[in-house]
Specification:
With 314 residues, the protein is α/β, with parallel strands linked by helices. Helices cover 38% and strands 25% of the residues. Helix 4 runs parallel beside helix 5, helix 6 crosses helix 7 and helix 8 runs antiparallel to helix 9.
Amino acid sequence: MILTVTPNPCVDKTVFVDDLKPGTKILSRKCGCVPGGKGSNVSRAVKALGRNTKAMTIVGGHTGAHVVDMIRHQDGVEVVPVWVASPTRTITTVLEEPIHRQTALFEPGPRVTDEEAANAIKTFAEIVGQAKVVTFNGTVPDPNIETLYMEFIPIARQQGVTTILDSHGPEFKLGVEAMPYMIKPNVVEAAELVGHPLETDLAKWKAIDFFHNKGVELVVMSLGKEGALVSRGEERFQVVPPAIKEVNPVGSGDALVAGFAIGLMEGMALEEMAVLACAAGTANAMSWDIGHFSIADVENIITHVQRRRIAVTT
């Protein structure tokens, strides 16, 4: 089983319109609503790929109850809620369909007290041993718990569970110090931590070495449409997806994480899991609904994923 941890989920609502005119009343013909948050996306992608997953999430209020209900009944994923008093946020995206332009409105996340944080740690310690792999996904809602991943990672390691960290900001920096097995920053997130832009291949590989020197065994740096750089020990390569008609790239990095989580759970060779992950991320971008792709879609894309060895000069 793959456990996903999402400290800052949301009610993720999309409103479809013809034209967004600020200051006016706009009638929408349709809207959609899914449980948002990077871990929710990972669980949805794991389930789409036919594997077992459980979602732990910090939630509060009626919006939190809505998130839990959607994960259980809409996604069909078992959920472990950690309840807080402050309400879960809503993210509203307005999509102008004719020009495919998105405008997203992010509400602040809930406050988390020391007692609630202690309960989250206790709950995690009780359930993480059920998993082979655990993914830590996204930011935390409250600076009061920015050490959360740093506290979770050693607990998972002590129980023999492989850890994957996909975050940014202070919680990512602190989490890296706890030496997760794998991290998956994009270029901007990696540059933020190393402290300088990563504009060349050499700079990107040096950043990857920076993370290895921190004790991270597997580093995957996502490059968007260019795929990802993958590094573990002496194995270093880039996976490159085929050209596609992109519909919605949101959640593709989470589908990438799902592919690696499955590969690590099942003991796949590094190239095999990287190709699976790249294909899953690509399949996700081909439809509007996050994580709603088929195994057949992924298997078809796998045959077109390139593996590119890159010579790194110093």
